[in-house]
């Protein structure tokens, strides 16, 4: 007999895992589908703003959440979803190997790294161009590197790189906009130098990166000699699967949800960084996932829960 789930959670980051916990507590039969357990959070070297936990790595936080979810007999399919279609009162979800039927869906697909589109970026990817300091920072012990980006994530990447590299440049097209606490820390970090309102025009090298060209002069030159550059230009929502079945997205391709994590299609909900909610943090993703689980319950049972 074919299993029909109450909820299929697409995405296995912190939003998806959190949704699974609340679905289980609401006695909803659910499955989490996603090939990358932890999502982008596993690349975070240090998290200091998750209530109740002073300091933890992204990997450490995901481990705790996964262990919690497994207490509720978490069912997870470690595959990518290739297609979703609607069939009468259920959704059909196809991976490469399986077909899953579910009465509702919660999209927790998160985001992917945004490329900068700099000349030389593609050619030197993995040869001095990187997108994750936690993954690749150790290659640059006692070397010179740059981070291209102007948000809090770029500053955090620079902090981590400063533990390895001799010199770190933060290059931002605009004024830097980190969290105030990180901006204060940045001013005290002697290894890091800030270049604001400057753009990287080209990444140059032989077999590996050896310099970058700026659109403005810095210390009387448009060229900076260095060994590597880390791109931190933000993220793009992974929303195409949802859009393909008619879920509305905004101009930034974020899934549009209401205050209850409901999309424009009945029975389809969304939570986390893939949505149009402004604040992209682990804690807000968890909150949205909780709302999505409760909303799925109410949709399935046709009644409001007493919170």
Question: Would you spell out the secondary-structure blueprint of this structure?
Answer:
Elements: E1 4-10, H1 14-25, E2 30-33, H2 58-70, E3 76-77, E4 81-87, E5 90-95, E6 99-107, E7 111-113, E8 129-130, H3 133-136, E9 144-148, H4 152-161, E10 167-172, H5 180-188, E11 192-196, E12 200-205, E13 209-218, E14 221-225, E15 228-231, E16 235-237, H6 240-244, E17 268-270, H7 282-301
Helix pairs in contact: 1-2, 1-7
Q: What is the H-and-E element order?
A: EHEHEEEEEEHEHEHEEEEEEHEH
User: For this structure, what is the CATH class of the largest domain?
Assistant: Alpha Beta
Rg (CA only): 21 Å
CATH level-3 fold name of the largest domain = FAD/NAD(P)-binding domain
**Tally of helical runs:** 7
- What helical percentage do the residues reach? 10-25%
Number of domains: 2
What coarse outline follows from CA principal-axis ratios? Answer: elongated
Q: How would you name the CATH homologous superfamily of the largest domain?
A: FAD/NAD(P)-binding domain
Give me the count of strands. 17
Name given to the CATH architecture of the largest domain: 3-Layer(bba) Sandwich
Class by SSE composition? alpha/beta
Q: What is the terminal-to-terminal distance?
A: 35 Å
What is the arithmetic mean of pLDDT? Answer: 94
Unreliable runs, pLDDT <50, ≥5 residues?
Answer: none
Largest sheet: 7 strands, mixed
Tell me the β content.
25-35%
């Amino acid at each position: 007999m074919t299993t029909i789930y109450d909820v299929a959670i697409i995405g296995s980051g912190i939003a998806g895992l959190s949704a699974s916990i609340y679905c289980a507590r609401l006695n909803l039969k659910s499955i989490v589908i996603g090939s990358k357990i932890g999502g982008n959070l596993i690349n975070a070297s240090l998290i200091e703003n998750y209530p109740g936990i002073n300091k933890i790595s992204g990997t450490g936080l995901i481990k705790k959440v996964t262990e919690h979810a497994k207490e509720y007999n978490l069912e997870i399919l470690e595959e990518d979803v290739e297609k979703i279609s609607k069939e009468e009162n259920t959704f059909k979800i196809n991976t490469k190997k399986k077909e899953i039927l579910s009465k509702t869906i919660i999209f927790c697909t998160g985001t992917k790294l945004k490329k900068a589109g700099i000349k030389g970026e593609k050619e030197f990817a993995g040869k001095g161009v990187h997108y994750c300091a936690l993954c690749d920072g150790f290659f640059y012990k006692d070397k010179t590197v740059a981070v291209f980006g102007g948000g809090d994530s770029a500053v955090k990447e620079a902090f981590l790189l400063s533990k390895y590299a001799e010199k770190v440049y933060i290059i931002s097209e605009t004024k830097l906009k980190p969290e105030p606490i990180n901006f204060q820390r940045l001013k005290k970090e002697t290894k890091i130098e800030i270049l604001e309102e400057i753009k990287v025009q080209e990444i140059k090298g032989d077999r590996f990166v050896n310099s970058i060209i700026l659109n403005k002069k810095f210390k009387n030159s448009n060229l900076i000699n260095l060994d590597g550059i880390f791109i931190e230009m933000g993220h793009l929502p992974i929303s195409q699967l949802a859009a393909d079945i008619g879920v509305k997205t905004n101009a930034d391709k974020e899934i549009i949800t209401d205050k209850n994590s409901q999309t424009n299609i009945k029975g389809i909900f969304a939570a986390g960084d893939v949505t149009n909610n402004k604040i992209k943090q682990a804690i807000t993703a968890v909150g949205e996932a909780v709302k999505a689980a409760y909303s799925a319950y109410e949709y399935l049972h046709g009644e409001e829960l007493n919170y």
